[in-house]
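Minutes, project check-in

Agenda point 3 was the complex the collaborators sent over. CS summarized: two entities, 855 residues total, and the question is how they sit relative to each other. Sequences were read into the notes so everyone works from the same version.
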Amino acid sequence: MSSPATTAPTHTLPPPDFSDWLSPILVKELRQGLKTKAFISIFILVQVVMTLLVGMQLLALANGASRGAMVGFDGFFWAFVWIPLLVLMPARGLMAVSDEVKANTLDLVQLTRMSAFRIVLGKWVALVAQSLLLVAAVLPYAVLRYFFGQVNVVDDLSVIAIMVAVSFVFTAFTVALSSAPMVFRIIALVLFLPFMFSVGVGSLFSRGFFFFASASGSGPPVWLIATMVGLYVYLLLEIAATRIAPVSENHSARKRMTALGMAAVANVLAYTMHEDVAGMWFLLCTPIWGWIILEALCEHTVRLPSLYASWTRRGFLGRMAGRVLYPGWATALLFTGILYLAQFNAVYQISVTAGSGLTDLKQMELIVTFVLVYASAICPLPVLLLFPRVRQPIWLYVLIQALFGLLFAIASIVAGTPGVTKEVAYRWLAPFPSSALFAYMEGGTDGTPLDFYFKVTFAVVVILVAYLGFRMFKEFRAISRLEDQSKPETQEAAAPALPQS
Amino acid sequence: MDTPSAAPPEIEPPQAAASSPASPAPSPARSIAPPPPLPATLVEVRHLHRVFDNVHAVKDLNFDIHRGQVVGFIGANGAGKTTTMRIMATLDSPTSGMVKVAGVNVMDRPEKVRRLIGWMPDHYGTYSCMTVYEYLDFFARAYGFKRAERRARVEEVMDFADLLVLADRPMNKLSKGMGQRLCFGRMLLPDPEFMILDEPAAGLDPKARLEFKNLVRLLAQRGKTLFISSHILSELGEMCDTLLFIDGGKLVYHGAAETLRRGAGRASNGDSQLMVDITVLGKVEELHLWAGMNPGWSLVEQRRDGARLAVASDDLNLLAAGLKKMVNEGIPVVEFHREVRRLEDAFVDMLKKQ
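CS then shared the predicted structure for the full assembly.
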């Protein structure tokens, strides 16, 4: 054992490689990723296949083959672009977080100054950087096909651009999945793999659909697609970060602010843009909103005063904002209500723009729908509150909603029997908001929202909201105490100052 | 025996604590008032409980760790050592109770605590396709070191942990001892004030154990506070100022190793006593009689060629006087041995008494 004071280092260290401005986790992932057999194999395979394919295609064309005879070559060419981009490279994300957890290395990384989000972001960036390397390797062949293969290079590049964008989202999805328990990963993968393949194949046949549709003004604008790709990637990475972050990191606030921001944009678009654009925005935002609401309603209140300090410092307004943004089901009740109000306003405005005004009946239906949607979202909460120690409340929430779905399915079967009307079959669903919503969406009340069916449903909704409101205010009192404890003077009295190092 | 809640003897906080081997040179003295002395207690653990489903892994732990101490944390497998250490390292949450490091609650402000601690887990994970240097460079980046400073830091730590010769070796091809040195080096990168080491010497060969002990000694000399767990008592007894014994999630002893050795040798009434092993040339019966007739001496165990006797005092002068009297009275003593109890025996005796 040598002491540095007595022995000078005699071994030289490797020369510096990656720059300092790159995230440490990105550097680490690139150092590892670029050396893995998986990446090297995929890279070499793509190169070999591309060389053969394009070479054969060019030879055939040189021998007088027509462009129409090249469809088979095109199919192989694109298959060897989308399989690595949309399947193989994103699939590497499936082990991104789980490998670290299994190898007992995540703890060590988390003890450094890196936040959970920076860790997953670094992993995602490293994977997409490797995907982009593959794309860069394919580009010369696309250019060769343009010069010698009589193909439209703009068409080719637009398809590659779409594939890259989809690959970004798929990779974020697999990184998010890698933070989930094994059972969940398997289920999600079984459901998702066919989707991955269908998107890959679909992008082949829709060749540049989005690009040309946008150029002609008849499809979603490029900025909307780009923004959505960014939002989906962000949300998926936030999901992964939430799972590995310590409870003292408030990820709820970020996600909820994102959801509210998206609702605000929906309103702005509804007032200022064509209803198709606003509608498309709303439609694409819906899964994000749904997931954020689901996570928010299934959260427990965090009993750590430090978590409330940054909001308490902002005074009264900070505390009020905290009532919507702190983690926990109680604040989620308010958050969900505000989000649905914003969504309602956007949908109302889109409907007005599209239909040049709404009839009273349509307005009433819209109100009824949103009230039922809100009630459906919060109705599992009383059951969740009965089991505060459940580790995965999201599963319990989903189970309760599935039971409501089952009730509706039974009612549908009953409604299908001769001599039974939907009105009669669905009547007993009235006390269950989610089942009632399904029935309403299916048209079981003949479009008359204020009949007996809805009187019962609304009575249940009022009782539900009153009960949860009562529990919410009790929870808010506990949050107020935590806010008081989080004040700097309280903290200083409780703990001596940190030593100067 | 010391009670679990009893505070260990006060120690002086390190005056002008020397910088760690890898820490940057101290800045020149400035004409400002010296900072106030740091509080002696670095870590406070109060009423700590941790329950996993139906397993109560940690039960009402209370202890303090003072600055500059090397503390051994001992217990059988499953006693709750790792759980306690993970909570102290901000990696787990207690069911109830509190841990403070330098006055900061580990649950409340983990990010502040993390700047003060180094953590060496019992099983450190390896990364594939990564060399020893790349591993340390990654963590140095993650701790915020930049450019030349990072390189110098990594080099110093590698030199201190004797890793320079392994710089280009893939980290998943290291032996257990090399791997532990690498993990130790990683822990030193941010120059932590308080280091938590979970079973650091487990699985090491004798040479690697010796090297590890030397590393611990070097850090202790530089005023660092170390909290080391093990289920091998002898190796901790030599390194640590203070020992904490945990059994079934409960703290059963908190004090110095020497105190434990002596404490465990107390008579049933709680008085101090020494154990001696005497071999005589014939006249065994006379020795047994002598022990029965002389006040302060008692026969513990008869043997064919001698006896094991207890002296009701830990005063070595009284022991010497007793032996002299024994020889003067014609007992043919050919061999005398004062028993120094092994920590393992002391621990087992203590558990029996519990």
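Noted in discussion: Chain B touches chain A through 65 residues (CB under 8 Å).
Follow-up: revisit at the next meeting once the mutant set is ready.
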